[in-house]
Amino acid sequence: MIQNPNESRPPRLVSFSGIDGAGKSTQIEALRARLNDAGLRVLLVTFWTDVARLTRIREMTGHTLFKGDKGVGTPANPVNRRDKNVQSWYMTAVRFGLYFVDAISLRIVVAKTLRANADVVIFDRYLYDELANLSLRNGIARLYARLLLMLVPQPDIGFLLDADPVQACARKPEYPLDFLHRSRASYLALSELVGGITIIAPQAVQDVERQVLHQVLAKLFPDGVQPSATFAHTSPAASK
Question: Which residue of 19, 74, 128, 233 has the fewest C-beta atoms within 10 A of its own C-beta?
Answer without folding.
Answer: 233
